[in-house]
Amino acid sequence: MLEFTPVHKHLLAVGLAAGAALLLLPQGGSGNVANGALLFDHDFHAADGLGTPEMNADSCRACHQDPVVGGAGSIELNVTRFGNDNGGAGPFTNLPGGQGLSKLRIMTMHGREEYPTGSPLPADIFEQRQPPSLLGLGLVDSISGPVITANEDPTDANQDGIFGVARRLTVNGGQEIGRFGWKAQIPRLADFVDDAMANELGLTTPDNGRGFALPSDGDGVADPELSASQVADLAAYLGSLPPPERGGSTDPRVAQGEALFTSVGCAVCHIPTLMGSTGPVPLYSNLLLHDLMPSTYRGMAEPGAAAGYFRTPPLWGIAHTAPYMHDGRAEDLRGAIAMHGGEAAGVRANYQALTASDQDALILFLEDL
Ligand code: HEC
Ligand code: HEC
User: Fold this and answer.
1) Which residue lies with its CA nearest to atom 41 of ligand 1?
2) Overall average pLDDT of the 99-105 stretch
3) Ligand 2 centroid – CA 366 distance (Å)
4) How many angstroms separate the CA atoms of 284 and 316, rounded?
5) What percent of the chain has pLDDT over 90?
6) For the segment 63-72, what is each residue's pLDDT rounded down to a tens digit?
7) Could you check whether the bond before residue 67 is cis, i.e. omega within 30 degrees of 0?
8) 325 within ligand 2 shell (Cβ under 6 A)
9) C-alpha distance from residue 360 to each of 146, 166, 318 (Å)
10) Whether pLDDT at 327 is above 80
11) Cβ of 305 less than 6 Å from ligand 2
């Protein structure tokens, strides 16, 4: 199992960046933040059990580093998921081994998308996913399920064309609300550590009964390749990352843009604050799933999150995390707004009806978040 020597320059950087905000964050779990920072920044090797034998990268930091370690990733760091949707006719089927497509594999190996072992079906549908920023996720973890479900509108009772449903997940026989991932497929921050270790790095973590860990992978390195306390350290590190700081511009157009953000309807989904365990969390999201896609859209489907349904992404720090949307197909903020169809088509039309200078003000506001 991997062990660290105590001295590492990253410790200092994390201490400085997180210092002030740490005190304000909810105290979750028992992990050691400094050790978690080292693990997040660590380049793993085959001797540590990296890859199963497939993987997407050799460290967490590799994909989460804009504008600081723990941040977002650029377009070339996208990961890919695949499955079969019967040429678009449906239903969507997971192929053996799951949706994750591995970027890095031994040259002589065929990819699962090419010849999915034991599957009567070929892969015929692919979806890209952008690495989001992880800043402030400890606060998102502290938002309770009832706070999230309070904003659901599954029958569009208020007839604004916008629905919004929480992601319901069955974990250990009970129901939990999803908070993390583009389809809100993961309920807790600590669960994402297990999920990312398995799917991005091909590293095994102990089975804690919640179903997100890969407990063994048969690569010859003793399982689990990371200990329960190392998983807790990583979760503590993620939980300690301070939320992005507001720009704080005093330009009157920023305040004007903020008012327009609400009046055109962006704030229906991108709710400015949700209440967390230690106070309001200014994330600009309702953490609910919405369908912004045309009815012809083909993509990954999961129980409780059909193709085209994605979680409203938080907008804090958005100026620093281009490109945008789940697959990164929007290069800038104006492009992201232009891609709001489906449930958000009416709101997009409201935005497009604004004068050019009002649109500029709304963008200035987004850039200040
Ligand atoms: C190959 C690139 C890559 C690597 C390596 C990677 N991630 Fe990610 N990460 C992503 C992508 C892409 C997503 C969005 C996935 C999705 O929702 O389908 C993501 C999402 C997340 C989220 C949820 C963010 C949110 O806003 O909901 C967390 C937490 C996270 N990663 C932690 C980690 C940790 C911890 C590691 C190391 C064990 C790691 N990631 C390694 C690409 C990566
Ligand atoms: C019906 C709910 C809804 C409304 C209304 C809405 N959005 Fe969104 N927004 C979403 C969802 C869902 C996504 C993610 C879609 C995807 O990834 O395919 C998103 C994505 C974004 C993104 C990209 C975020 C990222 O990290 O990639 C930006 C920026 C954004 N919205 C801004 C706005 C603005 C500005 C408005 C108002 C003009 C608005 N949204 C209205 C639900 C909404």
Assistant:
1) 60
2) 80
3) 11
4) 7
5) 76
6) 999 999 999 9
7) yes
8) yes
9) 36, 32, 16
10) yes
11) no
Residue 269, CA distances (Å) to 287, 299, 302, 310 in order: 8, 22, 21, 12
* CB neighbourhood size of 352 (10 A): 11
pLDDT digit string (tens) for 249-295?
Answer: 999 999 999 999 999 999 999 999 999 999 999 999 999 999 999 98
Tell me the two tokens of residue 153: 């509108």
pLDDT of residue 12: 35
What average pLDDT does the segment 96-120 reach? 72
Dihedral sign for Cα atoms in the order 88, 92, 97, 100 = positive
Ligand 2 pocket, residue 343 CB under 6 Å: yes
Bond from prior residue into 120 cis (ω within 30 degrees of 0): no
Query: How far apart are the CA of 309 and the centre of ligand 2, in A?
Result: 12
Neighbouring C-beta atoms of residue 277, cutoff 10 Å = 15
Mutate to test the pocket of ligand 2, among 340, 343, 358, 369 (most ligand atoms within 8 A of CB): 340
CB 237 within 8 A of CB 18: no
**Side chain identity, residue 52:** T
Which residue has its alpha carbon closest to ligand 1 atom 39? 60
Nearest ligand atom owner, CA of 233:
1
Atom of ligand 2 nearest to the CA of 268: 5
Q: Provide Rg for the chain, Cα atoms.
A: 21
**Residue 304, both tokens:** 């409780």
Dihedral of alpha carbons 10, 73, 182, 254, sign: positive
* pLDDT tens sequence across 136-192: 999 999 999 999 999 999 999 999 999 999 999 999 999 999 999 999 999 999 999
Judged by average pLDDT, the poorest of 64-78, 231-245, 275-289, 298-312 is 64-78
122 Cβ neighbours under 8 A, 6+ residues apart: 84, 116
